[in-house]
């Protein structure tokens, strides 16, 4: 994707950012792992600036002090932010696109979710907010009002490729109903392929409102937490980045001080692994089939 004004469907992941105790350490890790380059969020320029489209549109949440834009071949792919506040944990947050953030927050409340941070206007750019589903997984909302709607590079090695929410088993029904009500998602069960380690896994694939079921229209999904392997894990969104060699990337992550939480695993959708960076932020990588 090279068009900075790509139109995202309602609820489609459109941006990702990681908040870390040390942004400089994070830049070194992701630069070495995914080939990203970085500039301060307020100063990097690319076709009018990644924070500023041709009409001044800013990317969500990217311009706080300590924030840096990650770019792949000069095209924005994510943001790295530093925060040293009390109770910080290193975490990736996925942002979902919406045509109306205020209306989306109303639907969040009505569907049993929670507003974590109310809608705030980003001058010249759009409206951002943070919400959580009934299981407790939080996500950002981004209502673009400028020239930059989200990812400028996606679905290529080093860029965003997939996102999913991981819910507790007992919350699956409430969580599925929540995303259907808030964003109008249609769902169908994933088929990981006969003989795959993930065969039979309960996973609901999301398609935009009104779209036919099928992988060509898939924009994300809902999986289940592996509480047997990670009993302390909390519900959360998992952000995937595309890589040319899943196993090789997992090996490199460990060499850089990160960890492998699971995988690499081969399924009908490709090879994926769940990793953590050297400050503990969890993310995933995928090599598509």
Oligomer description: single chain
Residue share in helices? 10-25%
What's the tally of helices? 4
User: Which runs of at least 5 residues are low in confidence (pLDDT < 50)?
Assistant: 43-65
Strand content: 35-45%
Mean pLDDT: 88
Account of the 3D structure:
This is VOC family protein. Residues 12-144 form the VOC domain. The protein folds into two domains: 13-144, 2,3-Dihydroxybiphenyl 1,2-Dioxygenase, domain 1 (Roll), CATH 3.10.180.10; 160-288, 2,3-Dihydroxybiphenyl 1,2-Dioxygenase, domain 1. The model is unreliable at 43-65 (pLDDT under 50). It has 289 residues and is an alpha+beta fold. Strand 3 and strand 4 (75-82) form a beta hairpin. The chain contains four helices and 16 strands. The protein has helices at 23-34, 101-110, 172-183, 246-255, and strands spanning 13-20, 37-40, 68-72, 75-82, 91-97, 114-122, 126-132, 138-144, 160-167, 186-189, 204-207, 220-224, 236-242, 259-267, 270-276, 282-288. It is globular, with a radius of gyration of 18 Å. The strands form two sheets. Strands 2-3-4-1-5-8-7-6 form an eight-stranded mixed β-sheet, covered by helices on one side. An eight-stranded mixed β-sheet has the order 10-11-12-9-13-16-15-14, covered by helices on one side.
